[in-house]
Amino acid sequence: MRKSISLLFACTIMCMFFTGNALAYTAYSYGTLYLDIDTRPAAQNVNSRLNSIGYSSSYQPSVSAATAYSQMQNANVWFFNGHGGNGYIAFYNPGYRYITGTLHNPPYDNAISQLTGGVLNDCALAVFVACGSGNSDATMGNLLDQSQMNGVDTALGFSGVLDAAKSDYWAQQFAYYLDQQYSIYNAAAQAATDTYYNKFGYGGTNTYVISGSIGATIDPARAGW
Fold it and tell me: How many domains are there within the chain?
């Protein structure tokens, strides 16, 4: 009898362990101390919202591009806030390194186009809060297109130039509305409206570009489809 109870207890613990891990969705929120701006506080706020939604979210301050690139491959939500341009985003750790759409030569040595074979299939949302991150470049490629082509459900960037303070605010409001079960599109739109009225102008946050499932939600937490 004692042996049977012990076996039952062990099985119960194992079931709890595997069930808990199966339901643990992963997210990363990136902020960086650059020479001119600091996006870490906003990224930390976004991280708190992602945890509130139900993700096991990790705040990543001033990490390398290589680290973020590697983490993208096991993320269900991947959220970057910082510098960028047409077809790329920039990390500073120290010195600049980049994640691009297609260019795969140092220092631009982390191209999303290389992430083939379904490694991004579990990513529900990738966010690139950076100037020009929604645009294409003949050399760098397009971050959003490459993300979606390689498995990400929805990718979001910007076509315009972003004001740092306003885009930080937008990122926090966007995450807030995602936590309220808004669709990705509606969260982006409402966050831009909030920025306009509360920060006295859009500061480029109304130039968001969404590729993929614009009507999708990420609350409750989930993996990519």
Answer: 1
